[in-house]
Amino acid sequence: MSQLSNLQINGDRLWDSLMEMAKIGPGVAGGNNRQTLTDEDGEGRHLFKRWCEEAGLEMGLDTMGNMFARREGTDPDALPVYVGSHLDTQPTGGKYDGVLGVLGALELVRTLNDLNIKTKHPIVVTNWTNEEGTRFAPAMLSSGVFAGVHEEEWAKARVDSKGKSFGEELKRIGWEGDEPVGARKMKAFFELHIEQGPILEDEDLDIGVVTHGQGLYWLQVTLTGKESHTGSTPMPKRRNAGLGMARVTELVHETAMDYQPNAVGAIGHVEVYPNSRNIIPGKCVFTVDIRSPSKETLETMKMRIEDGIETIVDAMDISAEVEVVGHFDPVTFDENCVKAVRDAAERLGYSHTNIVSGAGHDACWINRVAPTAMVMCPCVDGLSHNEAEEISKEWATAGANVLMHAVVETAGVVE
Ligand code: HGY
Ligand code: MN
Ligand code: MN
Q1: Which residue has the CA at smallest separation from atom 6 of ligand 1?
Q2: Which terminus in the chain has less CB density within 10 A, N or C?
Q3: What pTM was estimated for this model as a whole?
């Protein structure tokens, strides 16, 4: 790779593509609301497909809507190097979460085309359907089906808050392919992603070499009490599911605080029924999100929270159902792929550090079926899953350069 040591992507073109994609599914505060399988997601897919075809790539589409844009290698039988992320966003998402990884991958192909650089192994730019899991739980749903973690039928039956299923929405937007999901074999998979945390910016570092990803549980909790009048029901007679939810919220926070500095816990999704100002909530449905880099700590937190919920509801004469709707163990990425990322950062002269990903990514599942690694770039104030999410063009360019070098190193340059 020494002959390509100064190979650099076109940062302006990458930035322009990011800003162009950000126009699709705009939020209300400068970010994006391009949730999976909405019309906006479909529009973003069409734009991405057009760009891929303009770059001479051949687009494949599987039965979960995963998109695979292939650049031929000199050896068509060689296992391709896959590189990508996700185009779907949170309802109040940023312009870069996921999108940087997909368009950074497209940019490396555009650069190789510009310089007529050939690789032995084909390169496949990838968009995974429904990474966020906010409309259809769990997160990383389609990369999970691809990796054999979820059954396709189960995944397609997942419903959103309006009762629409993944499968019917995928058909409705016209992005259900006929390629069997998971049939593709990979030499390796690389994903570029913003850090979504403060470490790189705080330490003034250009690149995160992601060695591990922390594990996660999403516990969907349903508390059932009794609806009654907020004015005339005596306090001792109330069976207040809302109060129960408040106590579980405190339990989740306190449990995570017992395992600092790495464990985290919060409740971000809440449904209160009947959600009337003068009716005591009879039912609350909410999702506990707990994470830790340690499997043992994660399991202990889950057990403590499940036991704690039992104690809370017994004392309040309400009932609880707890369903695991999302889970993956902590992930250790492939050391050869991680080395390719670290060597690329070294070669390019970028400051870098090993880092554990706080967020989940498609790479966490693909790591089960192919050697996988991730590249991270900083984001302003470590903020993400917020419309104010921001990065610099320099950070995006550095991340995409490291991604390109790691991918090209793995795909093998042909003179
Ligand atoms: O939840 C996550 O970590 C990812 O953003 N879907
Ligand atoms: Mn993401
Ligand atoms: Mn996200």
Answers
A1: 132
A2: C
A3: 0.96
